Amino acid sequence: MNEVPEQIDPRPWLAAARGGARREDAMRALASDEPGPRELAALLSPAAGALLEPMARRAQALTRRHFGRTVQLYVPLYLSSHCPGGCLYCGFASDRAAPRHRLEPEQSEDEMDALKSMGFEEVLLLTGERCPGADYAYVRDCVARAARHFHNVNVEVFPMETGEYRGLAEAGCSGLTLYQETYDPGRYERFHRWGPKRDYRARLDAPERALRAGLRFAGLGALLGLSDPRYDLLALYRHAAALRKQYWRSGISISFPRIRDQEGGFRPDFPVSDRELAQFIYAFRLCLPDVPLVLSTRERPALRDGMAGVGISKMSVASRTTVGGYSGRTQYSEGQFEVSDGRGIDEFCAMLRAANLEPVFKNWEAVYR
């Protein structure tokens, strides 16, 4: 049975986050100059839900202080939908009937050319769990190809060993994104029915292995809806804090993905409302003022418009969750989940500029890899 490690255990503050904190606790946390897990618990609590407006104002002020009026943009590129895993909530799980695809080298080059012509300088490469159709050698080759096109190349793939992450860094990879999905060990075991992803600690420790190997950035997150979100968010905060303390020269970012409709029809036990999502994002901005907070096209346009620059400093745009789909030469219809914001780059950037925000496609030079 997996156990949550002591350094990320959320239980000392969980009762406060679930309802033990009072309005005055949340107000004190809102005014704190040095917030920690105790203040985060108060800001995540139902009592803080009545303070959404002052939380938003402080979150926006902190976002502008640390990131200016900019919003960094990136695009995901799904390389493969092959996966041996049995994740109950995923459209790529091995028991789904959907056909499987993989970008061959020339196809991946077509997709990268298309993304480059759209103006992107940062790409996130994605696969399912490790399998013969999409193994380490395949991912490393795709990273090397992407590094010839983009200044910033990140991966969202299966957990690797330290030596493999070192190989990705040498190929031009800057960072990884790896969601723990849920930090609750019991529910983690329930959702990951079979496959390598059942190993809770192998996944939890992967960002540390990647930073130790020389990758510059680690993106963390929990898939909101799988478990009690306050449990997951407190553990996520402690996970990020532990990595920042040990790898202080590296960058950490936090994402807030919510469960979306997908092949298999999974429905979450803990749905997170728009209002709760906004509260959680503001709480993280108040407690981690200089950490990039990320919101993807999983969310609908009106919500993304409202969060841009108000806590959120980094967003995906023009996303496809199918394998390929950008060049017009590779057309597959089966995606990992449904995209809610289908706007193109021009429309999305016009929205940002109308809100007095500046879209940023490049904030990293390839020479620093």
TrEMBL record:
Its cofactor is [4Fe-4S] cluster. Its EC number is 4.1.99.19. SUPFAM superfamilies: Radical SAM enzymes. This is 2-iminoacetate synthase. It is an enzyme of class 4 (lyase). It holds the Pfam family BATS. Residues 255-359 form the Biotin and thiamin synthesis-associated domain. The keyword S-adenosyl-L-methionine applies. Signal peptide: none annotated. One of its GO terms (molecular function) is iron ion binding. Keywords: 4Fe-4S, Iron, Iron-sulfur, Lyase, Metal-binding, S-adenosyl-L-methionine. PANTHER family: 2-IMINOACETATE SYNTHASE.
